[in-house]
Write a structure and sequence with these properties.
Elements (H helix, E strand, L loop, with lengths): L2 H14 L2 H7 E3 L15 E4 L5 E4 H9 L3 H17 L11 H4 L3 E5 L14 E5 H7 L5 H10 L1
Antiparallel strand pairs: 1-2, 2-3, 4-5
């Protein structure tokens, strides 16, 4: 398991664990061991979870409250999954960047302004021309056509 996967797993466990469970895997680190967050050597605890983590109380709180990389970059991966699912082609006109030189965008079938969500089933690949022409209109024809292409 990669270090960031181990770190995410540790964070998920900490967020769901009871205080008693956390106390059971937490021990005071030996003198001279540095905190992973701030490099302090005072009041550092070792958390025996997989490879083990060294944190002081302040950095542990900061770690639990920071935004996860997956949350930060989740839109990028969702965008790529939509483009990949649609074969890097506009679902409305079928053009692609390689053959037709169009710029692709990820379009909401039901626009956010009309209550649409950022979910895989509400997003489609669209060229910039088709997307600009559609704007935030929602018609049964557009919804039906886009979902039929999925």
């Amino acid at each position: 398991m990669l270090w960031w996967q181990e770190r995410r797993k540790f964070k998920e466990w900490l967020l769901n664990a009871k205080k008693r469970e956390i106390q059971e895997i937490r021990t005071r680190a030996k003198k001279g061991i540095e905190c992973l967050g701030c490099q302090t050597t005072r009041y550092v605890y070792f958390f025996d979870f997989g490879g083990g983590f060294f944190y002081c109380n302040r950095c542990l709180e900061k770690f639990l409250n920071e935004e996860d990389d997956q949350q930060k970059h989740g839109r990028l991966s969702l965008r790529f999954r939509v483009l990949e699912r649609d074969g890097f082609r506009c679902v409305y006109c079928g053009r692609n960047p390689k053959d037709d030189g169009v710029r692709l965008e990820v379009d909401h079938i039901i626009p956010k302004s009309k209550g649409g969500q950022d979910t895989l089933d509400n997003l489609v690949t669209s060229c910039s021309e088709c997307n600009q022409g559609k704007k935030d209109f929602v018609t049964d024809t557009i919804v039906e056509y886009a979902r039929r292409k999925l």
